[in-house]
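Exercise 7b. Backbone tokens:
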């Protein structure tokens, strides 16, 4: 295995055989290393191509949008990573190609495109509640009403929960990036779903487990395992679903009616500049803002 398992030398030869220019080779190399660096820094683990799933690539795409990169830049990086994983599959280095379904973004893309519309959100919620799976309902409410990242969610411990009868007294302690800690108040919908979920845990004799989110076998969730919980509902609704889109939906709703510093605290952003990306400039919101002045 060469290049720390990245197979970059082999990939360059593969591209040369396709008569790609030296400029293209250099650009592809930089774009692929960009993803690899993102992955290793985000998940604090070594990059192994066979461990990558579609969700990782979707989250990377969303990350680039939130950083304000131009659509052409993002799409060029996506093109490079799709070519890279196609090469790995053709050489039998990986069995399945996680990038085959990775979509490029539209040229007029904004962060709003990387989240759900309200109509889509309600459709997903209806599908999940209609199925009635207690675990799925809790996962849905946790992600959509707390804004946690997937790596934060799978590492939440039962001891991180504080539940009281006092209004506003229940919260969730989350350890985010760079070990930064924050407290997230528990929305009523999360509390209701949590109550049913904890009963389910106790019924299946999982109550002694350290971690909050457990699979139906009582095991701590992996990122890919949690992602797969949503695939069923993606099929039922026809809407692309991955956990990070719920975080963006949560963020876009919070910034509509709260000071930007509140949203920054809830999301665990180190810089308010990142949070500002969620400020909507949709036409409907602009019209509503002007209409709100009519009673002055």
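Sequence design result:
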């Amino acid at each position: 295995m060469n290049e720390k398992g990245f197979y970059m030398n082999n990939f360059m030869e593969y591209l040369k055989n396709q008569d790609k220019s030296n400029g293209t080779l250099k650009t592809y190399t930089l774009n692929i290393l960009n993803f690899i660096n993102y992955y290793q820094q985000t998940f604090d683990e070594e990059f192994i191509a066979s461990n990558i799933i579609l969700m990782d690539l979707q989250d990377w795409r969303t990350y680039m949008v939130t950083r304000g990169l131009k659509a052409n830049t993002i799409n060029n990086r996506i093109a490079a990573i799709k070519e890279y994983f196609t090469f790995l599959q053709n050489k039998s280095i990986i069995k399945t190609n996680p990038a085959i379904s990775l979509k490029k973004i539209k040229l007029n893309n904004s962060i709003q495109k990387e989240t759900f519309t309200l109509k889509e959100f309600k459709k997903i919620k209806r599908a999940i509640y209609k199925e009635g799976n207690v675990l799925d309902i809790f996962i849905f409410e946790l992600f959509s009403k707390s804004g946690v990242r997937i790596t934060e969610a799978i590492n939440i411990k039962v001891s991180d929960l504080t539940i009281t009868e006092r209004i506003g007294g229940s919260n969730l302690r989350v350890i985010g990036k760079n070990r930064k800690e924050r407290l997230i108040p528990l929305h009523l919908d999360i509390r209701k779903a949590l109550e049913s979920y904890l009963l389910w845990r106790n019924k299946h004799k999982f109550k002694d487990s350290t971690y909050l989110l457990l699979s139906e076998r009582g095991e701590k969730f992996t990122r890919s395992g949690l992602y797969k919980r949503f695939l069923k509902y993606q099929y039922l609704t026809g809407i692309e679903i991955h956990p990070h889109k719920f975080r963006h939906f949560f963020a876009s709703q919070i910034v509509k009616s709260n000071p930007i510093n509140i949203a920054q605290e809830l999301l665990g952003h180190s810089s308010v500049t990142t949070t500002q990306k969620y400020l909507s400039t949709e036409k409907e919101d602009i019209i509503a803002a002007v209409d709100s002045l009519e009673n002055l």
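Instructor comment: The chain has two domains: 3-109, 118-283. The two ends are 69 Å apart (CA to CA).
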